[in-house]
């Protein structure tokens, strides 16, 4: 009987934990929301491994960031960076593909793409570079 009580308490506890799970996707300013923009036709969402560049800038002046995307060969390419803005939080996704029937190297050298951002107001901006699995690399920009 005592074992049955312990089992009941354990099952109840696990049930409470799973029922209390809160999916905060889209409820916080710092979460990644699903993009409203569809993937460009013929392209796939690419992973982003690193973002480098300035953390400051000025209104109406372009800030250029280097975005690194892993590649499986020299045939991989990134052709489009798509952004989805919600105030001062901007989600950015890289789209590309693999060239077919063309000569290329077998070297898996990361692809570096220039991402240009031109702010039109002062403040703190959060650029969220989103990979295929929805992992995010945040890049903070202070605009004067």
What's this entry about, in short?
This protein has 1 helix and 9 strands, in the order αβββββββββ.
Order of helices and strands: HEEEEEEEEE
Question: What would you call the structural class?
Answer: mainly beta
What's the N-to-C terminus distance?
Answer: 69 Å
Tell me the total number of β-strands.
9
Residue windows where pLDDT falls under 50 for at least 5 positions: 1-32
The overall pLDDT, averaged over residues, is 80
What Rg do the Cα atoms give? 21 Å
Treating each run of at least 4 consecutive H or I residues as one helix, how many helices?
A: 1
How large a portion of the residues is in β-strands, by DSSP E?
Answer: 35-45%
Main β-sheet description: 6 strands, mixed
Estimated helix fraction: 10-25%
Give descriptors for this structure.
single chain; 144 residues; mainly beta; six-stranded mixed β-sheet; three-stranded antiparallel β-sheet; 1 helix; 9 strands; 42% strand; disordered N terminus
What does this protein look like?
The protein is mainly β. The chain has one helix spanning 2-19, and strands at residues 44-46, 50-53, 56-57, 63-69, 76-86, 89-98, 111-117, 123-130, 136-143. It is elongated.
List the helices and strands and how they pair.
Elements: H1 2-19, E1 44-46, E2 50-53, E3 56-57, E4 63-69, E5 76-86, E6 89-98, E7 111-117, E8 123-130, E9 136-143
Parallel strand pairs: 3-9, 6-8
Antiparallel strand pairs: 1-6, 2-4, 4-7, 5-6, 8-9
């Amino acid at each position: 009987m005592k074992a049955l009580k312990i089992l009941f308490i354990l099952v109840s506890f696990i049930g409470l934990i799973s029922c209390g799970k809160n999916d905060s996707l889209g409820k916080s300013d710092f979460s990644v929301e699903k993009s409203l923009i569809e993937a460009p036709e013929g392209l796939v969402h690419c992973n982003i491994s690193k973002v480098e560049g300035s953390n400051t800038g000025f209104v109406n002046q372009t800030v250029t960031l280097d975005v690194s995307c892993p590649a499986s060969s020299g045939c991989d390419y990134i052709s489009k960076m798509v952004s989805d803005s919600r105030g001062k939080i901007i989600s950015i996704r890289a789209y590309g593909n693999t060239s077919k029937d063309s000569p290329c190297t077998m070297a898996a050298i990361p692809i570096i793409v220039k991402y240009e951002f031109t702010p039109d107001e002062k403040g703190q901006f959060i650029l969220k570079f989103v990979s295929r699995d929805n992992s995010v690399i945040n890049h903070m920009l202070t605009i004067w």
